Each structure stands twice: as C-alpha cells, then as structure tokens.
Amino acid sequence: MEYIDNLPAMDLMRSEKMTFVQLIMPVESAHRAVSNLGELGLLQFRDLNADKSPFQRTFVNQVKRCAEMSRKLRFFKDQIHKAGLLSSARPDLQPDVDLEELETRLAEHEHELIEMNSNSEKLRQTYNELLEFKMVLQKAGGFLVPSKSNGVPEERELDENVYSNDDYADTASLLEQDVRPGPSNQSGLRFISGIISKSNALRFERMLFRATRGNMLFNQSPADDPIIDPVSTELVEKTIFVVFFSGEQAKTKILKICEAFGASCYPVPDDITKQRQITREVLSRLSELETTLDAGLSHRNKALTSIGFHLTKWMNMVSREKAVFDTLNMLNFDVTKKCLVGEGWCPIFAKTQEALQRATFDSNSQVGIIFHVMDAMESPPTYFRTNGFTNAFQEIVDAYGVARYQEANPAVYTVITFPFLFAVMFGDWGHGICLLLGALVLIARERKLGSQRLGNFMEMLFGGRYVLLLMSLFSVYCGLIYNEFFSIPFNIFGGSAYKCRDDSCSDAHSVGLVKYGSTYPFGVDPKWRGSRTELPFLNSLKMKMSILLGVSQMNLGILLSYFNARFFSSSLDIRYQFVPQIIFLNSLFGYLSLLIVIKWCTGSQADLYHVMIYMFLSPFDDLGENQLFWGQKVILLLSAIIAVPWMLFPKPFILKRLHSERFQGRTYGLLGNSEMDLDAEPDSARQHREEFNFSEVFVHQMIHSIEFVLGAVSNTASYLRLWALSLAHSELSTVFFEKVLKLAWGYDNIIIRLVGLAVFAFATAFILLMMETLSAFLHALRLHWVEYQNKFYYGDGYKFRPFSFATLTDDDD
C-alpha cells in the first residue's frame, strides 16, 4: 500500500487542489488587478454582495455606461450586416483609447448614423411614392382614353426619353397643383386611381362593390415589376386600379376603404397633355432622388466601413470593461480604508500573486495588494485541466454530475471504455471506416471549423470529433474480430479451419461444416457465415463476452471506490463497503465469469444456466467438471449472503459511537480534517452533524445496500444490451446486403442495379451509420452513467468557473 501511496498523481484522476483566498486591494489598483486576473483566468470570485440588488452596488453607473456602449456597438454591427459589409479588423496604428473617449466617439457615430438613416428613410419613402405614381400614370392613363384612341397607344408611352424636346419651361409644375380626381362637374362621372397590394386586390374590389351597392366600375392592371412598399419597405406585387363612381358620398366611402386596405391614391388627370407633363416632372424628380440616394448610401457605407475596422476591438474592450466592473461589484467596498475586499477560489498552481504585483506596479499605487490564504467551511469547486482530446470525455462525465472535490474522475477510464463498449455494439469494420473518414475530416479542418459559428448539431459533432475518432477505431477492431465488412466475411488472417462436406456446399445449413485445419488465428472464422450453427454460435459468443465485459467494468468501479476511500482516509468505507461489495459481486457473477473462461479454454459442455440456478436451489449437488475446489457452491453462496449484513449493519453503529465520543470530549479531530470526515460520512449524516439522526443514517445505509445487491443482478443483465445491439446491427446489415444489393445485382438490368445500389447506400448511411450510431452511443452512455459510475461516483460537486476574458470572447462571438 505504501508503494501505491507513493506513486505520482495521475493527470485528470483527481481535480486540482484549490485554495480559498482573500484579496485586499486599494481602490486605485483594483481595476487593474481584476483586469490582470481576467487575463489569467484562474480565480473564481465569491459574491460578497449577494444580499444587494444590482442597482445598490458600488459600480452600477459604470456597468450602465458599458451596457449602453454595448447597445451602440450592437447597433453598429446590425447596420453593417444589413448593409452587406464585412466588419474585418485591420492593424490599428492609433493609440488605444480609454473608456471615456470611446464613449464620446460612439455617441458621435451613433448620432451621425441615426441622422443619415432618418434622411435616407425619408428620401426612400418619397422615391417609392414617386415610383408608384409613375406606375399609376402608366397604367391608369389607359383606362381614361376613349375607345377611338385605341389605335395610338404609342403616342402615350410614358418614358423619360419621350417629349424630351418639348418646351415646358414656362409651364407651372402640375405636381404642385391640386389635381382633382375627375371632372369639375359634381354630378358627373368621377374616378379615383391608385395602387394596392396584389394580395388585397380581390377583397378590396368586393368591399367597394358592397359599399357602393354596385354603383361603381373597377378596372385593374398588375404592375410590371415588384414595388418597394413605402411603409413596410419590402418588395411586394402590386396592382394599379381605377374606380369610376358618381357622387360625393361614394367618394368618401371609397377613400375610407382605400385607407383601410393600405391603398395609395394618386391623382391622374384625364387630359393627355397634363399626364405627359406630370410624367416628365416625376421622371426628373426620380432621377434627382436616385442621385441623392446613391450619394447618401455611399457616404453611409464609408462611415460604416470606418466603424467596422475598429468594431471587433471596441466590442472586446467594452465587454472586458463591463466584466471587470461586474466583478468589482462582487467585492466589499471599505469606505474608511479606501480599499476593496474580495474572496474566491484559485488552484494552488495559479500565479495569482504575480498578476497582483504587476497591477500594483502598473497603477503606481503606494500600497500593495494583500493576498491572504484562508480556511473555508464549504467544499471547494472542481477543476480538471483538459485539452482538446480529453475535454469531450470530461463533458460526457459532467453531463451526469460534476465530480466531488478530489473525487476519482471516471473520465480517465471513460476515454477507453466508452468508445470500446460502443464498438462492441457497432462492430463492423466497413462501417467503422466510414466513421473514421468523417472523424478525420473534422480533425483535418479543426482550425477552420473552430473559428466558425456552427449549428447545434455540427457544433456537437465537432466537439466530439476525438470521441468519434476512437469510436471508429475500436469499431474497426471489433469488426475485424466479428469478421464483418458491411456484413461480408473475409479471409484476412489466413484460410478457414472448416470446409463443406461436398463441392456444392448445399448441406452447410442443414448438416454443418467439417473442421480440417487449425483454428482461425484472429476473430470469427469466415466459414461460420451462412452455416447451420452461425446464429447459436454468435449468440453464445456475444452474450458471454457481454457478461465478462460487464463484470470487469463493475469490478473496476468498486476498485475505484477503494481508492476514493484511501484518499479520503475513510477506513470505514474500505472495511464495510468496499470489501463486502467486492465479495458479493464476485461470489456470484465473478464466479460465472470464471466458468465462462474455463468453458472457453477447456471446451466444456457444461450448461452455465443450470450451474447458476442450482447454485441456489441445490448448493450441495456435485458439479462434475465444473468443480474447482471442495464445497465451492456453499462457500460462494455463504460469502454472498454474509456480505449483505456486512454492508448494512456495522457502519451506522460505528458512526453513532464516533459521534458520541466526539461530542463527549473523548476524541477530537483537527478542524483541518473536517472536510475529510464530511466526505467519509453519508449525505444524511453530513447534513445533520450537530444532531446525529441514527435512524436516518441507518435508512440511508439500508437503501445503499439494497440498491447494490439488486443492482448487481440488474446491472449484469443490463450489460447484455452489448449482445443484443451487436446482433441487431449485424442482422440489419445482412438484410440490407442480401435482400437489397445482392438481390438487385442478380438482375441483368443496369437500372435495377443502380436502384438497388442507391437503396443500399441510403439504408447504410441513414440507418446503420446514423441511427445505429446514435443508438449505440446512448446505450454506451447509459452503461457508464448507471452501471459503472454508481459504484463509486457521487457527482455532487460544482464546477470551477473562474473570471476569465477568454470565456467572454466566446460568448460575444
């Protein structure tokens, strides 16, 4: 045991050792100190102002200013995105700006941009209205010409090049006049022209018909091109209409209906000369507005491009400043001493004092920052230093629960056991190569994909690229053992040990094969495929292999509970938890695993079901060739029975005696060891330390013992899913190959062959490579979370979340 204790600590096996520290910082150097700690990213601050609202804290005004600047920067980013520009940063030769100067510059840029947007919006609305007016003049004019003029439509073509040589200089602008919507005769026929959305045209016509009781004539014509609506600024299909009516009441009703349906009405004179002059003026003003809009857009794009060069730098600066002030709000402000007091957790390897000394020097403070290590009653946070390879496996474990401080980390073994158990269910080296290619593509494009914003599915897939890599490699390995390549066996490692009884091999399914050579060197003999005993043989192999793997992994979990108990110096857990658990599990299922190995090695014909059942029903019967030592069934059965009360009774009574002695003054432990004692006790005992509740502790221990005894049976049976899913994957692959691809290839028709190949490829990709991969992944996840980790893993800790600028950058992106 001394040799084990003297071994160097394994990375990831236990979380980093943490210290609880107190910082006393002068006001003049506090901001620089917190900023340096954010760069370091290894100190988790405790909120000492949790009882105060955000508006009662010291630096609330600075946080508000930073939030306002963040809003302005998001506004700029939005405008750049809408303009279709790229906010690419370029090397900045200007000196760094401070927060006050940046705030002033952002306010100026925002005011300028809002003013440009307002002017552009007004000009755009005027331009759209004139464009609609032009369309109305083009279409509605045709409804007003008498039938005798139908032969000269070319004379009324409304084009900016027509009538360009006519002299209209002395004529007053008709756009400035109030053109009435019809003849001056109040009792005669009048009209209203305008434009409306095409989707509302039919309902608009029906409403007009009902409102005027049919006393109107409605003419319409679709616009040639989609028009930008002045209100919604979206491209919409529009329809030009002219409504002929009589009377003031009808006019009032029609105008109200036009307003309700969002129709825009424009006056069109019935005189062709006036129409031509208005058209000329409209085209002239459209040309002027286009020039003005282009100039305004160019000026706006230049301003946005200038902002875009600095946008990333400014957003990073503001987010950092806001994070610093948010952190400063978590500290106590001592007015009399003019200093800030903070508390938090940091790993012992963190170079925190160097960052604080650098902050004191940079801020020219006369008083240094005091760094004081303190004792804490609460449990420290859990922090594992991971890299790109181990991070995904650590996330798999943390999804179940974050490890208790300094508890054995399952991720160390999950790196190998998780992809291996997946491969046991997914074993096919053809499918494994497909997964391997996908994993290699993700790893090869790691740098490019890591800098992009991915969707939820792709982000999850990219994060688990190394998990996928190991799963594919183990799938190739298990596929070689099963000798399956898309369900096809190959003679990779030499010739088969079996042959058919005749050349036709017709009785392979009925009579069987004949062994004539040495055993196939690696994996399943390819001749088993299609033989009479193929399914019984593979079922027996995979079922026994599942039991062996399950019992081995559960023993590993119990062994890790021993190392946890040794680490926390809990001899009670070793004597009254680890020892009876290892005895109980191996007296029953370890014995079964040993019989499986003996049967494989000796070729025994013993029925293992019979041996295990009659171990309980007839413990004194003779075992024959399975007899390993005298009285083995009785000894193993008694060991399993004795282990149950061994787990249940001693520990609660010993805890009660220790508690009584501790509070009667007979034995006292050091305060520094209180955390170990707390970890060694059950949750119920830890929560009621002052008032020891024996019944609660006993019930907790009883539940734990019953859960382990029943779980030993159910967990072993649960590992049979390895056999079931492996068999299902193999049979599905066989069905798709023989009933789809092989069947289609039997036809001498290229179309049928191509269809069969397409169906086979689709089934392989979406069913075997996607659905089966997900199924095997989830089952491997369950085996680790439930069957393996519940033997030793509490998972009731909390993550170490340091104040770090690196996480802020990821969040902003």
Automatic annotation (TrEMBL):
InterPro entries: V-ATPase_116kDa_su, V-type_ATPase_116kDa_su_euka. One of its GO terms (cellular component) is vacuolar proton-transporting V-type ATPase, V0 domain. The chain crosses the membrane at residues 420-443, 464-482, 545-565, 577-598, 629-649, 750-771. Residues 99-126 form a coiled coil. GO terms for biological process: vacuolar acidification. Its main location: membrane. GO terms for molecular function: ATPase binding; proton-transporting ATPase activity, rotational mechanism. It is a multi-pass membrane protein. Keywords: Coiled coil, Hydrogen ion transport, Ion transport, Membrane, Transmembrane, Transmembrane helix, Transport. The keyword Coiled coil applies. It is found in: Membrane. Belongs to the V-ATPase 116 kDa subunit family. Essential component of the vacuolar proton pump (V-ATPase), a multimeric enzyme that catalyzes the translocation of protons across the membranes. Required for assembly and activity of the V-ATPase. This is V-type proton ATPase subunit a.
